[in-house]
Amino acid sequence: MCDYQFESTEQGPAYGKFYSPRYPSSYPKNIRCSYRFRARSQERIRIIFEGIFLQKGDLSCLNRADLIRIYDGKTSSDPAIGVLCNEGGEIEILSTGSELFIEFVANSDTPGQGFKARYQFQTMENNNIENQNANRLGGFSFPTEVEPSVSEASVNNMLKGI
């Protein structure tokens, strides 16, 4: 088990990066990691997954052994706002409040490379998205320039586990 905590402070940086274990090498089998983010009052958390390279499989996350679950709160008991399991372009997650919990579960026999992501603590009134060429989908944002092999149906299938 691996647990990481990121907390917003007046002295510390308001942004950073985080990764799956051993990234960019393959992550270990049978691992469960948690990433807890706590912003100050009047802040929320913005996560951008820059690359997700998990176990290969079908587009649905329903039967995948390796996945990333995102919860809008401080534990896995809070509402799930995302389940990610496929390779893809940048995906943005934005919390509604000051806490966010991410769980990475890897149970496959053939682990992938993992993921890399960055986080930012931002004030509630700062709702601007860096990339104005993004389509919002719930708590997610996808670039408008999607690879030709990714169809709207593929994106919908990828999000069915939410």
Automatic annotation (TrEMBL):
Pfam families: CUB. One of its GO terms (cellular component) is plasma membrane. Residues 2-122 form the CUB domain. The keyword Disulfide bond applies. Keywords: Disulfide bond. This is CUB domain-containing protein. It comes from Rhynchophorus ferrugineus.
